[in-house]
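To assess whether ligand presence alters the predicted conformation, the chain was also submitted together with S-adenosylmethionine. Input:
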Amino acid sequence: MPAQKIQEKKIKDFVKDRYGQIAKKRAASCCCNGVSALKQAQAIGYSLEELKNIPDSAILGLGCGNPIGLTTLKKGETVLDLGSGAGIDVFLAANRVGDGGWVIGVDMTPEMIRKARLNAKKGGYRNVEFRLGEIENLPLHDESVDVIISNCVINLSPDKDQVFREAYRVLKPKGRMVISDIVTDKELPEDIRKSFPAWAECIGGALLRKDYLDKIKKAGFSPVKILDETIYLEEGMSEKIKGRIISIKLQATKARKPKQKLGDRF
Ligand SMILES: C[S@@+](CC[C@H](N)C(=O)[O-])C[C@H]1O[C@@H](n2cnc3c(N)ncnc32)[C@H](O)[C@@H]1O
């Protein structure tokens, strides 16, 4: 295996192990700083009303925005959540798309999938499903979803080009992707970019904003619109990263027309 692939696998294994532990003990690490998960969720844009209508054990305080709050989901739509964790955004989406819709959460950490499935049972959800898998190799057919959401996950992937290619592949033409994620506005120091714990905390793998947006465009999305940004300036943050860590919210559209069916040409 090439050295780069070995390194990517090591990062992923570390991240998976860390989120496995979080799923088991309900403690949050990424983007939280010890604040209660419910308070953290409200601070990043969820309303108490929304949160009251989903299982409370789905709220782990791991997100960096509220992607559902940034788009209008229609009844009957099929939604995919990349890195669904314990299911917070899957359940919120399910409440919006209704019984005729379908929401799929994909996550690579078995303990998270187990927790999310238990939460679905607890909440009596019949329009959701959780699939164990990697966002670099989505377990979904081409052009099968209307909307992709993702909350504080893609920064954790060592191969973001592949994530955006996969997102493009599974979206229906004119489908939209609404993301909340971490980017930076200055290159982070090398020791942070190489630190596995910093990766798991959604910092080590964060790209420069421009590089992140370029990768989305390179996958074929157009237009790509920034909806909002928040700079993290929390107390206790290391001076090395203070003021450089940004939560970005964006919407990207799959512009391409539907593939021509063989029969359509004759
Ligand atoms: C910071 S948590 C966010 C969870 C959820 N989106 C939320 O807001 O609560 C990151 C999640 O992404 C998952 N994850 C990280 N990298 C992944 C990958 N390459 N493929 C699939 N899941 C991944 C982790 O297992 C974890 O559950």
